[in-house]
Amino acid sequence: MNYNFREIEAKWQKYWASNQTFKATNNSDSPKFYVLDMFPYPSGAGLHVGHPLGYIASDIYARYKRHKGFNVLHPMGYDSFGLPAEQYAIQTGQHPAITTDANIKRYREQLDQLGFSFDWSREVRTSDPKYYKWTQWVFIQLFNSWYNKESDKAEDIKQLISEFEKNGNSQINAVCDDDTPIFNSEEWSTFSDKKKQEILLKYRLTYLADTEVNWCPTLGTVLANDEIVNGVSERGGHPVIRKKMTQWSMRITAYAQRLLDGLETIDWPQPLKDTQTNWIGRSEGAHVEFKVKDSEHRIPVFTTRPDTIFGASFMTLAPEHDLVSKITTAEQKEAVESYVEATAKRSERDRMADVKTISGVFTGAYAEHPFTKEPIPIWIGDYVLASYGTGAVMAVPCGDQRDYDYAKHFDIPIPNIFEGVDISEEAFADKANTIIGNSDFLNGLGFKEATRKVIDELEKIGQGQGKINYRLRDAVFSRQRYWGEPFPVYYVDGMPQMIADEHLPLELPDVEKYLPTEAGDPPLGNATHWAWDRNNATVVNNDLIDNKNVFPLELNTMPGWAGSSQYFNRYMDAHNEEAIYDSEIIGYWQDVDLYIGGSEHATGHLLYSRFWQKFLFDRGIAPKDEFARKLINQGMITGTSAFVYKDMDSGKVYSKGLINGKNVIPIHADVSLVNASDELDIEAFKEWLPEYKNATFVLEDGKYIVGREVEKMSKSKYNVVNPDNICEEYGADSLRLYEMFLGPLEQSKPWNTAGITGVHSFLKKLCKLYGNIQDNAEPSAENLKTLHKTIKKVEEDIENFSFNTSVSTFMICVNELTAQKCTSKAILEPLAILVSPYAPHIAEELWEELGHQESISTAAFPKFEAQYLVENSKEYPISFNGKMRFKMELPMDMGKDEIEAAVMAHEKTIAQLNGRAPKKVIVVPGKIVNIVG
RNA sequence: GCCUUGGUGGCGGAAUUGGUAGACGCGCUGGAUUCAAAAUCCAGUUCUUUCGGGAGUGUGGGUUCGAUUCCCACCCAAGGUACCA
């Protein structure tokens, strides 16, 4: 049989689509299995060979599970809101929806070409109003919830209101803003509606707050940390300042401990769990309040070392701390203000990355030590960040290297409060070996005892208590962008109101321009038809805003992670218009059994999704509080860039072997112009880069050899390899096999198209093997042995996600069966099933060849039988001092002593020993013989 | 700095609980076939060698009859993260 992959692949892709072979049913007697890929952002560049790596792996697993009798859910969709489409819209005026649709179409073609077993009937797009209706709906549920620390879960805000009506808020143990006032039920009843709303906002799981952002006045927009380079915007190089802005936030911090605890229950890669653990950043310590001398103000700090409180010789506030302007003395005012201004120009990342420069200014004010009542100077310094802890540090220079360096730099005293420790050169931070001295009631105690004691004392004087602090901050949920989900929010008297569920989705309005308005409002500020008519529950023209019946709508949109935080649930019942999903259906699918995607989403998507899932669980909307049992990170595929070398002196282009001693610069050459032997197609290169049309190419052995280097696969490095060309030349099955053959799924590895000929010729050999199938040919013992060791290995490999070794196993199997001239249907039939998860098109074709009418996709996976692998002799490796020197064939049932006797009698043993008497002979039957001496 | 992962031929990589290092594939070399090329097939391919053998999995130690695998120290690379008080 000839391997006509183009015909075969087109035929079966068409068959799968028209027969809906991979459509999953929402109920079944079979056990369920949910295999999920991280859905892609459909960029304009299309897929490169790095993208499908994870999809191929998950597809193999999904197909394998079908062979194993599971009802498999394997959906795909698009994370289709995002910046590139918006950027393109700004440049060209083209509506992002149009660009996005075109990109999705191209993605779909590319994905279809690879033969994935997706259930496309469940496709979702985050930018589709039918989908984002439910993103908006979850937002409303969050708005209508608060976090009850007693029950340790999110609850309906109505319960909170009725508690306020009964008892006020003094008995409530809830997660809320720090500045929430205490009130009783009578006070609550006298509050205005607006005041009530203001207070409730301090409890809601999504709320409005003033948060600091990187504001670029010239661009009129907010920038992400990585859009800022050296304090100026990456695009255009405009200045960026820190600015407060009212934005929606998510109270993810309420879930900090549960997000930490939940990691114990899920089978995710340890590095990913570590990243989340560090991001949440739990630390135990104490909250301490320092009184400011001659004032009413108090400075709260969090410290992990309350035991060292007697060593505190100064305090440092973040320059943007609220108290700075209030406590600074007249003499220091100028210096402080200019320092604060200078700090505002630095990005947070910049401030944190710079460890070497020590800077700060004295405010002129003093705090009072809670126990000694001694004055403590209050400084400001940009190493303290307003968003961490309380934005203030109790500085103990003898116990913290950073405080030590700061004290040295500004000549602040460094009192020693440790017994028997020299601190003349550096701070002493070793908790385990600490004995406190010079510290009044703490003298002689170790870290633990001193900490306990000092917290007791702080509580007695009302200036502190033990506290667990989390590094995790509430997540800002507003974006000043156009191409995102609109908030279902309008404003009455400045207070946010939710649009009722039945009027969702609130669709994104059309705008003339996708840029921020001249007034500095987000792009939705350009919309003329963007006001909410409360009586008629419709969007109307802005002119009609009267703040009585017609109100302004929210101008921000939601961030990229909004749409991806619950899509895995929505796939289960993707087109339900009545509910986010049917409870019976999610009751059947429950959660994701296997999730495959990149580790770069560790602290974004994967943390936020866990948060949303826990919330949905608390509110009885989802049955599981973790959405994915098992997660695998696929590694990155790097590109192998190619370089030509231009001599800067002569202008000639030298082959790689000739560049020594010359003043050459490497220039990227497109990898498609280079063959497997690193030889450049010079004519094609000249056509590609016309400026080299007349350049002289200096060859070695008549060839131009390029230099090679492994770099990230990227358009700008001309090392992107497109799967379309490979499919065209070798077929999807070859590409699938080769991507897996490259190496372990989770490791990053370089791409080199040249190697694909190996798997391609394997598929040809496979076809050849099926050229003369004999229905009734009895399989030989050898045939059965080859088949069953392949079954065993492939099954183990798939279960362990070791797909690369399976491909080798197939090659060995086909090589052996070819050598054995196997034609037996009893062997070739199960082999086709083994291959089918990896190379599904050819497997279907061979299956048909074998006489089947139905798709191979649900054929039962062959059963391994150990009896065929039983051996009656073993080729023993004979080692001397652990080094294998020769081999010897001996029967399997031979005893230890007989083996030893046989080995010692062998002539090579005698030669090796050369007259010496062995000290010891180790015989492990069935394994090895080792002679020592 | 810290956390994580990794380091094996010219290249991608294999070696399941400590038991034959380099499977499988690419590339390369030689040969067959061909007018020639492609394709295909066969043989060889860790290094070294006086052809007996010897050395060898980042480096240096250790445990063991035996270490790519376990332990200690270090070096290098990639990714993540950061004055977290």
Written account of the structure:
Helices cover 33% and strands 19% of the residues. With 933 residues, the protein is an alpha+beta fold. It has six domains: 28-139 and 561-633, HUPs (Rossmann fold), CATH 3.40.50; 282-470, Alpha-Beta Complex (Isoleucyl-tRNA Synthetase, domain 2), CATH 3.90.740; 486-556, no CATH class; 639-712, no CATH class; 729-868, Isoleucyl-tRNA Synthetase, Domain 1 (Orthogonal Bundle); 871-932, Ubiquitin-like (UB roll) (Roll), CATH 3.10.20. The strands form nine sheets. Strands 10, 11, 12, 13, 14, 15 and 16 form a seven-stranded mixed β-sheet that branches. The longest helix is centred in the last third of the chain and has 19 residues, at 781-799. The structure holds one RNA strand of 85 nucleotides. Its main location: cytoplasm. It comes from Flagellimonas spongiicola.
